[in-house]
Amino acid sequence: MKPFLTGSAAFAAGIALFAAVATAQQDFTPDYAIEDDAADFATEAPANPSEPWILAAGGRIYDNWWEALNRPAPHYITHPSYPEVGQKSGAETWRCKECHGWDYAGVQGVYRAGSHYTGIKGIEGAKGKSVAEIFELLRGPVHLYNREMIPDDALARVAAFVSRGQFDMSGYIDPSTRQIVAGDINRGREVFQTICAACHGFDGRKLNWGGPGEDAYIGTEAVDVPDEVLNKIMHAHTGVEMINLQAFGPELAVDVLRYTSTLPTE
Ligand code: HEC
Ligand code: HEC
């Protein structure tokens, strides 16, 4: 048995060494395993993508690229461009929304104050710029998104979102009070009851993503973080099979947002 044990021990040592090397180098190694809750619809591209699909997919990368693309999160390092004044660290600081805001307005928007403050400007200045130019900016020294993090096809989608998909939220949500100031509640109710309720329930309480002892329903979020919810309605939540209203434009999404703010918060 001795040789077998020796061989097995050597094999185990080899595995351990491989694992150590792999851990050291693996941080951004692509992981194509699809999670149970992240089926093709959530993380894959259609064969012949339409403009609304591209913009919604780009919006999800803006939200959280590793969940949108089913990749490992960059837990190990705070983004080098994340400023000292900021209160966040680690993976969160690699989300576009963390530096530029859910309303794309950066320091001019909702993140002008509070725990998400960075002082960084919004992305509105890049509206209408070429996808190629935005793409280069995102691969460059300020942003540092390499191919293992966001592959070329996905980076082109978030660049398309920056160029053609962002919209001015300031007329819908007041950036200083974070209150919803537009939207037709009755139109929103029509859409919510016939579409969203299939998964979220008529009162929005069928899915709860809050922590222990703390509810987070659509109603809760619509009141607390309407700019985030508007993104989810326009682009869908990342890594799950949720629909989005991109094909119908922001006005209808704001109607739904307004209605969801009337739903139970707990
Ligand atoms: C860690 C913070 C940080 C993250 C995360 C980040 N950016 Fe930036 N971004 C910056 C900074 C800093 C600038 C330069 C701002 C300046 O020139 O004052 C910038 C500039 C930009 C600009 C140019 C804006 C203009 O007015 O021309 C665009 C577009 C942009 N970022 C898009 C993105 C996208 C898309 C993502 C995610 C894929 C992203 N950023 C993630 C910090 C960040
Ligand atoms: C096909 C099912 C489905 C439909 C239809 C659907 N959603 Fe979702 N939605 C989900 C799932 C799944 C989640 C993730 C829940 C979780 O993380 O626990 C989610 C998450 C959300 C979130 C929370 C994201 C966060 O911040 O964590 C919001 C807000 C939301 N949905 C709003 C809507 C609205 C509004 C509609 C209608 C326009 C809608 N959803 C339609 C499945 C759906």
Structural summary, described in words:
- It comes from Rhodovulum iodosum.
- Residues 183-264 form the Cytochrome c domain.
- This protein has 266 residues and is an all-alpha fold.
- The chain has two domains: 40-165, no CATH class; 185-260, Cytochrome Bc1 Complex, Chain D, domain 2.
- Helices cover 44% and strands 0% of the residues.
- It has helices at residues 2-25, 40-43, 51-68, 96-100, 131-139, 152-165, 185-200, 218-224, 226-235, 250-260.
- α5 crosses α6 (152-165), α7 (185-200) packs across α10 and α9 crosses α10.
- Residues 1-34 have low confidence and may be disordered.
- Bound molecules: heme C (HEC) (2 copies).
- One heme C binds at residues 195-196, 198-200, 207, 209, 218, 221, 228-229, 232-233, 237, 240-243, 245, 256, 260.
Major β-sheet annotation = none
Helicity level: 40-55%
Amino-to-carboxy terminus distance: 63 Å
Mean pLDDT: 88
The succession of helices and strands, N to C, reads HHHHHHHHHH
Domain Cytochrome c: 183-264
Organism: Rhodovulum iodosum
Signal peptide: 1-24
Protein name: Mono/diheme cytochrome c family protein
Give the helices and strands, then pairings:
Layout: H1 2-25, H2 40-43, H3 51-68, H4 96-100, H5 131-139, H6 152-165, H7 185-200, H8 218-224, H9 226-235, H10 250-260
Helix pairs in contact: 3-6, 3-9, 5-6, 7-10, 8-9, 9-10
The structure holds heme C (2 copies).
Residues 195-196, 198-200, 207, 209, 218, 221, 228-229, 232-233, 237, 240-243, 245, 256, 260 line the site of one heme C (HEC).
Domain Cytochrome c: 183-264
Keywords: Heme, Iron, Metal-binding, Signal
Protein name: Mono/diheme cytochrome c family protein
